Amino acid sequence: MKTAHKSRVRLSVVSFTVFAVMAFLLAAGSPARAQVTPAAGYTPPDDTPSIKLGVLIFADYTYQQKPTAKDADGNDVNPNSFNASRAYINVTGNISHLLAFRITPDITRVTDGSLNGSLLFRLKYAFAQINLDDWLPRGSWVRLGVQQTPFIDYFEGIYRYRFQGTTFPEREGFLSSADAGVSFHAAFPSNYGDVHVGIYNGENYNKAEANDQKAIQIRGTIRPLPRHPVLRGWRVTGFYVADNYLSNGERKRAIFDTTFEHKYVNVGFDYLDTKDQQSTKPGSKDLHGKGWSVFLTPKYVRANGSSIEALIRYDHMEPNNEITTVGGTTVAGSGTNKRTIGGVAYWFPHQGNVSFALLFDVENVTFSDYVPTNPATQQKVFLHGLVSF
Description:
Number of domains: 1
Shape: globular
């Protein structure tokens, strides 16, 4: 009971702090602006309402080398298919220079019910945004609604190969890219970094809230040397999720991340630590996972804006290292997942944030030390395509 009370107090304090800061900034900032006489040459902010339409498409051809499958006659076959794994329609707009919004539907493959196998549109993002550039460094805001979670949205700005597959913590099932809630983002002056903190349902964007528990997520990032001609691309990040499956049933995630961006290479390293207690009943087990991931994307940039890039990535995850033995035999706690990804991509010439890319890659996933048997090795060959406009 004490733990549950402390969780509610912590959540209340964070909630009050976020809303109090925002209320003060908005209440104190607007009147002051109204009383100031614009200086000569002053250009007022553009408050003209606007709306923009964009698209994002992930398409691929997948050939599964391992394991093989059986067809209707019992023959061994290598499954292969053409897929559209993602199709966004991004609707973004500004009501004024202070107020913005985004609505993004996504597709997903239905795996049960009468629509089994169909591609179904669902809501991925739907949020309102209050821009705080009048009071805080540019890029500061508050969001309310179904929105990006702090870590994955940040990380994918550096690792731009989500169209190959999701990032390490999301691929292992420990994080989601979006959830419903309220969050606050503040940029540090002089490009020294930023902080993003939010309160979310904790059930991810594709599920309804299941209980009275809320997830607190916070990410802090610093650039140690933002003015150095080379090392300004180096960033160090800490991320933490405090959540519960139910009262006293912990769901915690912690990530240490460091990345380096350069015109000719991007590099990143993540260390992930997780704790899950889905039940507090006698005999229930705590799951404690740990893992790490590293990626490298060297690239050759041509004068016309196109580039040829290599994708090299390795993931190492132990979903549960809490060892349980019965009669001297390990019955839980063992198991290691190892994922290797290698590929070559061509990014076509583009302007601004528009992108078109093709990626040929091979992914291999092995499993070891599982009880009683290891899952089968997975080996797939892909041709991935990206359209972003």
